[in-house]
Design a protein that fits this description.
globular, two-stranded antiparallel ribbon, alpha/beta, 7 strands, 5-stranded mixed sheet
Length: 539
């Protein structure tokens, strides 16, 4: 074992420890926040309680919106706890986040043959705001990003290496199948379209035959359609039509949810990729320069990766900022490559604007935010002004340190200072800000009051809405939803004591009727809604 191998392994261990702390610190302390987290936790819980791991269910009904892999993983990580917990539901995202960064570290070393680019790209991805936040959530998107990356890395290794092509191409199809079991056809389409576009650009499309698509296709079909077939047995024809057509083709052509304009990601991607967005203009300018055009071949693969996924989701009618998470690694590769060029050629005149101006800007912005933060908090939330003190100190110190580094052309220390600043601010937020927001975002408090008031077997319903967090935190797998006043009247006139969750705006309308007995037991703000827990009999 040579010295270089030892150094790479040591660097990998340090990177894993850093990422594990960043993605796992305080991950299990926060409650599930609507809309997605409590839903995925509840589906996993109903899967566990029913023993049916084939057909996902929500509120006792088939849940055709997503395939089962995330729910399987949540249940697997829940085994040591004996139940679905906040931590076990988020472990798939956190560990997938570590996996994404490690793949990127090795990907960059294979594409650029440069360990520094590998380390920078992994750290840039880890500290981009949206990716970092999503590793702390129970969601599909980081897991999907991991499988898309793994599929692309497997293809690239098979394409570039003389030996073991068959093994890498087999992994290419396996990871696409796992991506499909995570979030549907996009798990296959994203890596496949990137590969086709890349090979077309290289005028090497015949390589697709080398991947042995007939063998890979059979393997893919066995992994995916075995579950589809079994799910069809349990859920019937309607379930299969829902998950294969409405939830996928329907969202692509004419989305029934999250319709956004074509330019949506031109605005939201830069915002969510902060702080590294600041270097994107410099990358573009450099790539259009004479030197950049000569070096473009070095970043062809990540550039195709970025453009294909960005274009794909832009033409899809349903859009959310988390959908484009699989292009974040490509952006991180390109920016890390550019920053490495900057580090190696920092005296070159072309980097006076493309390199130094973004660094000065982010340093100045950091100091400006240090001034702005306490003013904004004092104006809108004066009772929390003291919480801003450590943030202000970090922002001022970070901004000044970064200014000194860039003033003396110490680019690499500047970048690590920026990475550590994001790390420090996010970690501090999980200790100070997240617990404060949790009081307003979580339904657990009012559900705990409901659980204390009810006895086992008592009837519980919801009026005019259904939120999965109320299912999860009352430890039930089914709640009746009452949608009209006549049904509510009948329910509340029961001879037995019954209970109900109702929104304040609906309660005001209902309480005007003298015919409906209704007594408020608990009240709480959940998100932007004022929620009440009521009964037909006074306690």
């Amino acid at each position: 074992m040579n010295k270089t191998t030892i150094n790479i392994r040591l660097l990998t261990v340090i990177l894993v420890l850093f990422l594990s702390f960043l993605f796992l610190f305080n991950t299990g302390k926060r409650d599930f926040w609507a809309p997605d987290e409590p839903r995925y936790a509840q589906v996993s819980k109903e899967m566990r309680d029913s023993g049916n791991f084939i057909l996902p269910q929500l509120n006792g009904e088939p849940y055709p919106h997503k395939p089962p892999l995330l729910f399987w993983m949540i249940n697997l990580f829940s085994v040591p706890f004996g139940k679905i917990t906040h931590l076990s539901a988020r472990l798939p995202s956190a560990l997938a986040g570590v996996g994404c960064c490690l793949i990127l570290f090795n990907f960059a070393r294979n594409v650029f043959h440069n360990t520094r680019i590998g380390l920078l790209s992994a750290l840039i991805l880890a500290t981009s705001i949206k990716f970092l936040w999503m590793t702390h959530r129970a969601a599909f998107d980081v897991l999907l990003t991991f499988f898309v990356m793994a599929a692309l890395f497997s293809f690239y290794k098979g394409y570039k290496e003389a030996g073991n092509k068959g093994r890498y191409y087999t992994l290419f199809y396996i990871f696409m199948a796992l991506g499909t079991l995570t979030k549907g056809p996009v798990g296959f389409l994203l890596p496949f379209l990137v590969v086709v576009a890349y090979l077309s650009l290289k005028r090497d499309i015949k390589v697709l035959k080398e991947t042995k698509p007939w063998i890979g296709g059979v393997l893919f079909a066995i992994m995916v359609f075995s579950w589809v077939y079994l799910a069809g047995i349990y859920g019937g024809k309607e379930y299969i039509q829902q998950i294969l057509f409405k939830q996928n083709i329907g969202r692509f052509a004419d989305s029934f949810a999250h319709k956004r304009p074509l330019y949506y990601y031109f605005i939201h991607f830069p915002l969510n990729y902060f702080p590294w967005t600041i270097f994107i203009p410099g990358v573009v300018v450099y790539l259009f320069s004479r030197e950049g055009r000569k070096r473009f071949q070095e970043v062809v693969f990540p550039a195709v990766w970025f453009v294909v996924i960005f274009f794909f989701f832009s033409i899809v009618s349903g859009k959310r900022d988390i959908y484009v998470l699989p292009l974040y690694p490509a952006a991180s590769l390109i920016i890390a490559w550019f920053l490495n060029e900057f580090i190696e050629q920092f005296r070159d005149i072309r980097f006076r604007k493309t390199g130094y101006i973004p660094c000065y800007f982010i340093s100045g912005l950091t100091i400006f935010l240090g001034f702005l933060l306490p003013i904004g908090v004092y104006k809108f939330l004066p009772e929390h002004i003291r919480l801003t003190i450590p943030f202000v100190l970090f922002l001022f110190a970070g901004g000044v340190i970064m200014l000194r580094f860039i003033k003396h052309a110490r680019i690499l220390p500047f970048l690590f200072a920026l990475i550590l600043l994001v790390f420090s601010l996010f970690t501090l937020s999980t200790l100070e800000v997240i617990p404060l927001l949790n009081q307003y975002k979580s339904a657990k408090e009012i559900c705990d009051k409901a659980n204390a008031a009810m006895k086992p077997g008592d009837q519980l319903a919801m009026y005019n809405f259904l939120r999965d967090s109320y299912l999860f935190y009352t430890n039930r797998n089914h709640l009746t939803v009452i949608n009209d006043s006549e049904a509510l009247k009948k329910y509340m006139h029961s001879n037995e004591r019954v209970f109900l969750f109702i929104r304040d705006k609906d309660f005001k309308k209902v309480s005007e009727s003298q015919d409906i007995p209704i007594f408020v037991i608990a009240r709480d703000s959940v998100g932007h809604r004022e929620m009440l827990f009521v009964s037909n009999k006074d306690i």
